[in-house]
Amino acid sequence: MEEDYEEGPMADPAVWKAFTLVFAVLFLAATYWIWHLNTELVQADYIGDILSTAPGARGVKYPPYTIIEKGNITIGFKTTNDDVILWYVPLQTYLAYSNQPRPSQYLTLQRVAGGAEVRVPDYRAYVRPEMFSEVIGTLTAERTDRQFVNEVFNLRKQLTTYGNPYGIENVTNWPIETLTNTIGTCRDFTVLMASLLEAGNQNAGYGMTISIVYVDTDDISDPVNPNHVLIMVQYSDGVTQCIESTSATDICPYQVINGWSYDLE
Description:
Blueprint: H1 13-44, E1 51-53, E2 65-69, E3 72-78, E4 84-90, H2 91-98, E5 106-110, E6 117-121, H3 137-140, H4 145-158, E7 161-162, H5 175-181, E8 183-184, H6 186-204, E9 209-215, E10 228-234, E11 240-243, E12 260-263
Parallel strand pairs: 7-8
Antiparallel strand pairs: 1-4, 2-3, 3-4, 5-6, 9-10, 9-12, 10-11
């Protein structure tokens, strides 16, 4: 004699399909968590090196990133060849730089229209190539001056967050602060890139002249009010190259630039 019975919910193809989907999602989530944990452990192995290039760490974690552990800061970013470079900074060194008094030097610019003057901070006072003198060789090694400039801009493109990390208006950050925070304004990114460029210039003897240029973004070719800063590089052969401080795509999106230019001293 046959007994009647009710089919369980798993006998329903729709229910079984939903169950399989949920299981797959949970499995992928667990796999990612284990991968992420291993990623952090691999990165920790590099902490303690004064400077490391770690091509073997490609894909381990998407740079740029900052790791702070046991009084050390490790800053990671990619080169144009997609290699990961790690720069090490003792936390005490970082604090010593970041706690320095902010410069108070100013420049007086002559406006084109009406001949009026305007007073602006002299951002050259914030440029500190010595902060990167021990590590900049990883960007200059076997590179021409133009390749090096592209590497610096490439590093900058990875620091794409525009804003003030401290929420205080008109405060310029030291270059090591901007590099660590990966956030800043046009003046912060200009100071950072100028510091890196000058460090590389001194390291490799490129013979470049690096300038900070105050411009008017409302009229880049006929400035009235300086409201933006960028960098101008003159190579040893006389060719000039502008570097837009906030661009994440084109190194120089302008056809013509007129502004107030000041060479690094």
